[in-house]
Amino acid sequence: MNYKVINKEKYYRKDVFNHFTKDCKCSTSMTARIDVTDLVAYSKQHDTKFYINFLYILSKVLNSRDDYKMGYFWQTEELVCYDKINPAHYVFHDDTETCTMVYSEYFEDYKVFYENIKNDIEKAKQTREYKFDIVNHPNWFDASYIPWVSYDSLNIELPDGYLHFAPIINWGKYREENGKLMMPVTVRMNHAIADGYIVANVFFELQNAIQSFLK
Fold first, then answer.
1. What is the pLDDT of residue 157?
2. What b/e readout covers 67-103, taking b as 16+ CB neighbours within 10 angstroms?
3. C-alpha torsion sign, points 20, 24, 27, 28
4. Nearest to 188 by CA among 145, 149, 141
């Protein structure tokens, strides 16, 4: 785990950061639908899992901009930017109706990422444990798939004043709209390091990254 410490006095969001870490501690979240028609078709054509393909694209997008890789060390009050953030995702067990958290590593190489995620998922299927371990996984972002419903809005609430800077991403079941398969995606980030533009940019970059992935 490598990171750089941000000089808060020279941070380009200095005033915003100070306001939302001292005066008004809060988060911001946004839900929008993205077009996954071609990615679904690609996954079927190449006999690959849509879930893993989307998780790869999502991880790549979140690693493309420093604003999505921020962290906060409350012990030393240091603002940091990680070199890389990794997906913490979930396996759902039908028999117990519970989830197992899966800590996977992001690899820019798609084939390496795909095999790594596939193996992590198979291992998680063998357990019913839920091990939340943010201490040993500080540069992991939460990626949660909600396959049962194509929702219109979703909010993730954290305790007031909790400076959790890693993105929290949810996505639901895609549905057909005007001949396209549209999938809801929710992005939650702390307002100290992200505003509406930074959050909205995730959706634009996801759409662009899907097209790049398909080339």
1. 82
2. bbbbbbeeeeeebbbbebbbbbbbbeeeeeeeebbbb
3. negative
4. 141
